[in-house]
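We examine the record.
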Amino acid sequence: MEVAFDDFEGLNMVPFTLDYSSPYFLDGTDWTKDFPSGWGLDNSNNGYDNSTMPGEFDGWSLMDVGSWIGHAGEQAGRDRCFFGNSGRNVALVADPDEADDGGNTDLGSPDNPLYNSYISRTYDVTGKHLASLMVSFDYDFVCEDTQTGVVDISFDAGSTWQNLLTIDSTVDSGAFSTELGNQGTFIAGVDFTADLTATEVVLRFGCIRASNDWWFCVDNIGIADQDGVIALDDFEDPALAAAMLPFDAANDGPTEPFDPSDGTDYSDTIPNWTVSNDGTPDFPTKKMYRTSQEGAFQGWNAVDSLSWFEQQGDQQRGFFNFPARNTILLCDGDAHQDDLVALEEGEPGTPEGESQFNSFIERTYDMSGYDNTTLEIEFLWETRLFASQRALAQVSFDYGQTWTTILDVDSDRLNLSEGAPEDPTYEFTLFPYLFNDNNSNGYVDSDGEDVVNTFAGPDQYLFGDALSSLPAAKSNVLTLRFGCIDTGNDWWFAVDDVRIKAETQGYVMGDSTGDGKVDFADIDGFSNALFGAAGYDPRFDFKADGVINFDDIDGFAAELFN
């Protein structure tokens, strides 16, 4: 079961501190009405004259979200419509606001709204278990005037409809979005009544009663029953991409063919994650000793990979750029060095024996009710080797008291001696990650400033019990930490798509009273298990070794006092 997934998309990004004069992007593959099989557009209730309406805004269209933003601007949050996609995203869009702009057809007024567009798909559900039918989709809707968004389901070919979702701007306000936590999954018997004898289901989306208002965007539309997915439309089929057309007019939008830096370049506010630039208890001297004028590179930040690429001029930073825009966790000591704030006269610099750039970022996950011995951690990463730079990934099961290192890319251990690795055993462990062998010698080495990354797919770390090669402690927390340390004018360490999985268990570690928490009321239960007054109790086997003994005291104490 997935515990958490961070792809760092949809953050509140701000412009780079310094002005690098970078543009945005449009590439001529912007929209299409060549919908996938099964989808049908109904503009019959539109009241405007569409003879002067650009086709892309005449009711629902499939749009490249990046191009749509480039054309219309982010305004009230069109960037949410990437829906966490790590690259360019195609979605169904109805945008009455843009349809009314730029000298297009008048869509009326709030007193007489003329925009009423529906799009629907019919699904074959013959033989499916409709009692367990589930409908899910991502959406983003911004309220204004009378614009209304509806999602309906029918089991009789559209003769009658049941409403799943209605957002009425005359009643509601602001933005409604699955990216903001609004409901996106609807279940038979809870949200609608399924006709168990039906052989077809029709799902329709409507953007209605709109004039010069905002938008309704929908993506990742799926239906499933207890046996699995029946159908899923994420609109990312290459055939769709081939059918995409350029916008009819750019209005006042940017026109550069490829330009990522639109003022949403980085964020130092990353939900659930904490940055430390002042050392840690186990690395007290690993601090950020110098300050950069560019806030994006003052330790770990969430950074738009394309903005980073453009601003730094490539230098082999392209791994996270495909297929397009992507927000990543980033430390870049090289970029940090480029714009250092000068030291005042007499101001101390970097202490002897230390490098100027050291930064950590960590997230603590609530693992109550999850079995850490089934833990799976995966993520994408990249670093470029140089000098003493070190890229670390570590986990802790005891609130940071002890750490297990799962990734350690230490440039200082990857030097060459007479043309061969100084530490061949260590070099061999990193060879599968060799992406750019800059001196073409067949080795992972810092002399060549090689790039290593997870080009073959996310790194996976599988934990087990005390006898496994990667033992986990049974606890109610997991802390994952990334560090970029011992860095001067070196290169970077980047991370993305951090996923945590584990199987559930029916108890909380250390909770003898069953109240869902660990406190002093649980001490007697732990003592009885420790000294044999009670039988083996898995709630107190913090070492996951099948016995309760003094090795489990630290684990219980960590839960009790944290």
Summary: Confidence is low (pLDDT under 50) at residues 18-26, 249-261. Residues 141 and 216 are 5 Å apart (CA to CA). DSSP finds eight helices and 33 strands in the chain. The longest helix spans residues 65-72.
